[in-house]
Each structure stands twice: as C-alpha cells, then as structure tokens.
Design goal:
Its EC number is 5.6.2.4. This protein is α/β, with parallel strands linked by helices. Among the domains are: 2-36; 124-181 and 232-320, Rossmann fold (3-Layer(aba) Sandwich), CATH 3.40.50.300; 340-432, Rossmann fold (3-Layer(aba) Sandwich). It is built from 15 helices and 11 strands. α8 links the parallel β3 (200-203) and β4. The N and C termini lie far apart (71 Å). Bound molecules: zinc ion. Residues 71, 73-74, 77, 85-86, 88-89 line the site of zinc ion (ZN).
C-alpha cells in the first residue's frame, strides 16, 4: 500500500510538474510574442532615451559602439555631419521630418523643407548611399511601390535591389517587413544596413534570441525607430501572435512587405514549405503593397509568382534593370561520366582551368555535397573547400558564410540553398553536377 501510495504521489507530482511546465511555456510564449500592445515598450524606450541610456538592439554590430561620438538625434549611430547627426537623422531633418528624431530636444538650424516624392527619393539616395543618381529601373521601382503597386523588381545581383527597398522603407512612415529565406542571409543584410546607418532588426521562428534583445526590438518598433524588420517565411506563416502584430500595424496603415529572393516562391519544395503559404499576405492584409526582389526572372515566372501570391494583375508592376542580358555568362554543358573517378577528374580539370576567382559547385542533395567534398578535398590540397547545405547547424552555416565572405573558402560545394544573396563578385565558375531545375538558377 505504501508503495502504491508513493507511486500515486509521484504520479500526481509528475502531472503537476507537467502542468507547471506547460504554464511556464505558455507564459514565456506570451511574453515573447504578445506584441500587440506596444505602448509599454514605447514608454520604456522613451525613459531610456531621456536618461541617456539608450542602447539599441543592433549596438553590437557597430564597431566601438561604447566610445564613438554618437548622433545627437538618435544616440544610436555614429555622428556623420557637422550638425552632429548621423546620415539618417540628417535625411529626416533635410526632408522636413523633424518628428522622426528620437531626441525631441534637438533643434535644427535650418528651415523646415517640404519635398515632393522625387525630391525625397533623390535626397535619401544621396544622404544614405552617397549616390547622385539612381540606376535604370531603380527610380521606376521605387515610385511604383511607393505609389501602392505590387512591384516585382528583377535586377541582376549587385545591381542595386537593396537600395530599392531601403529607400522605400525610409520614405514610408511605418515599418517595412522583409521576408527572406535564410537566417544567414538576413544577418548579412542586417549587418550591411546597420553599416549604412539604417535601424533594422530580425526576429526568427526558432531561435535562441534573448528576451531582452526581443524586448529592445519591440521598444524600437514602438518608437517608430526601426524601419526594416527581417523575418523568415516560417515566422510569418506559423506565428499567430506575429500575425496579430502585423494586423495592428495594418490597421494604422503602418506596414509594408518586401519579399527577397522571390523566385523561392516558385521553388518552395527546394526550400521551406512556408514559401507556398505567403498567399496570406494578400488574404490578411489586402491593401499592403508587396515588393518582390529577384535577380533573374522570366515573364512567365513573374506571372506565376503574382498568381501564387494572389496579386491582382491590375495592381502589378514589373521592373527590370537595364543590363538584363547576361553577355558575361557562358553556359557549357558536359555529359556526366558515370565512373566516379572519371567524374572527379573532369571536375578537377574544370577547376584547374579556372585559377582566377572562386568556384561554386552545386549538388542536388546534402549527402551528394558531403561525398563530393570528401572526394575533392584530397585532390586539391592547395585549395580551401567548404560545404554548405540545410543539414548543417545554424551556427556552423554562419561560420561557413563568413569564411566565404572573407575569401577563406575558394571552392564552395553546396545545395541550391547556397548562393542566394551571397553577392560575391569574384565567382568565375559555377558547376551544376545535376542539371538545375530551371535556367535562372
Ligand atoms: Zn541619428
């Protein structure tokens, strides 16, 4: 009886513990994601600004953050102008948007300007990017999107797609949510934008992002400071609380969407299931314009993307950059030899004929990548090889990407998950061991 009693007690305790854990889990989930009510976050952030202890969520991406002379308008970025402002605050002042400065005590020395849309675009381009002119396609894309069109922008890699959505995000009063396929890409973009002095943040579906970091992000959103928020499709499609947050912003007409690497919508089976669910954007928030960014896209692909997102043809603009024709690319097709040794010899010969620049080798599967890496590495002792695919952990993938960017990896073997948004200008040879699904890959 005693034993039964003890077991019974243990059972009760175990059940209580389970309930307790569920309650804790729900509590943390609510704390982490209940972001509909932004006002308390706003008060907290304003208090920090008043007490001069504002430490933005992206501070660690700004070198020497603790010792640099900071902008008097936001206390977040490095001072760039003689009037004590960063590029962004200087843009706000020149645009006549004095209210956008976090420091409400800052008194501009100039008169308040009122600019039209073209002048604002020109001003933002000069102040943030330092360019006097936009490239062909960029102005049309920016104007179409800011005028409320769902806009597909097809400009080759390195052609300035980032500029298009960043300028739009700065001119738009609210927050621009950028949906991007991979965490590694997002982190890379975020770093790039912080270097430009643009307040942005990223949140993920499954991540060990500390609570204090997430709180800071929502404080900055509540202040209207964050201009760009990066998310993965998974976060958008699966997290109901995040959808509520968007609905809140939608009710105030303060949200816009950008889909980076939009061709993933067509190839979602190669990436993540969530891509096919992006139709929720128009279903839930029908009047929010979407900007779609892609490097290469045929007319048919563009129409397929449009229909899969349920975008009306009457509200759709397709903008292509000038140099769409890729004369610099040569495509050669070889018969793949069945014999493993002959196949690797053929690859080695191709690699040795391209001593300049770096090389990407695509395989169809993760195990194919690992096998090829194991085969090629001993045959190329003077080259540094890397492997990149979905089977590698997040942390390791970040390290591989950063080694690729630093030039420490000369030959990358990967699935087609690698390459999106990598923006390397010194890749002179791309080998597909298996025929790609379509020519734009
Ligand atoms: Zn500033």
């Amino acid at each position: 009886m005693l034993m039964i009693g003890k077991n019974y007690k243990d059972l009760i305790l175990a059940r209580l513990a389970k309930v307790y854990l569920i309650v804790i889990f729900l509590f943390f989930n609510i704390i982490r994601f209940c972001i509909q009510e932004l006002i308390p976050y706003k008060y907290k952030a304003e208090k920090r600004i008043r007490s001069n202890s504002f430490y933005p969520s992206f501070a660690k991406l700004i070198p020497d953050f603790d010792v640099i002379i900071k902008c008097q308008g936001c206390s977040a970025f490095r001072k760039k102008t003689v009037s004590g402002l960063c590029s962004l605050c200087s843009f706000y002042i020149s645009a006549g948007w004095w209210d956008c400065l976090l420091n409400k005590n800052y008194t501009p020395s100039s008169e308040k300007n009122i600019l039209d849309l073209k002048e604002l675009i020109k001003l933002a381009t000069k102040k943030i990017f330092g360019f006097d002119h936009l490239r062909e396609g960029q102005l049309e894309a920016i104007e179409a999107y800011l005028n409320g069109k769902d806009t597909l922008v097809s400009i080759k890699t390195g052609g300035g797609k980032t500029l298009c959505y960043v300028i739009c995000a700065l001119i738009f009063e609210g927050i621009t949510i950028v949906i991007s396929p991979l965490k590694a890409l997002i982190e890379d973009q975020k770093r790039e934008l912080i270097q430009l002095g643009i307040p942005c943040a990223s949140i993920y579906a499954n991540t060990i992002q500390g609570r204090s970091e997430q709180e800071k992000i929502f404080e900055e959103i509540a202040l209207g400071f964050t201009k760009i928020l990066f998310i993965t499709p998974k976060k958008l499609c699966l997290n109901r609380e995040f959808q509520n947050f968007i609905s809140n912003m939608y009710d105030k007409a303060k949200v816009r969407f950008v889909i980076d690497e939009a061709h993933c919508i067509l190839n979602y089976s190669n990436f993540r299931e969530s891509w096919k669910n992006l139709g929720i954007l128009k279903k839930n928030w029908s009047t929010v314009p979407i900007m779609l960014l892609t490097a290469t896209c045929t007319y048919k692909d563009a129409q397929d993307i449009r229909t899969s997102l349920e975008i009306q043809s009457t509200n759709f603009a397709m903008i292509r950059g000038s140099s769409f024709e890729r004369k610099e690319i040569t495509i050669e097709v070889y018969k793949r030899r069945d014999n493993r040794e002959n196949f690797s010899n053929d690859l080695i010969n191709l690699i040795k004929n391209h001593e300049n620049g770096r090389i990407i080798i695509y395989c169809a599967t993760q195990s194919g990548c690992d096998d090829l890496f194991a085969t090629l590495q001993p045959l190329l002792p003077d080259k540094s090889l890397g492997v990149y695919h979905g089977g590698i952990g997040d942390e390791q993938r970040q390290i591989i990407i950063s080694h690729w960017k630093d030039g420490k990896i000369q030959i990358m073997i990967g699935t087609n998950a690698f390459g999106m948004g990598v923006n390397s200008s010194d890749v002179y040879l791309v080998i597909h061991c298996v025929a790609p699904l379509n020519m734009s890959e």
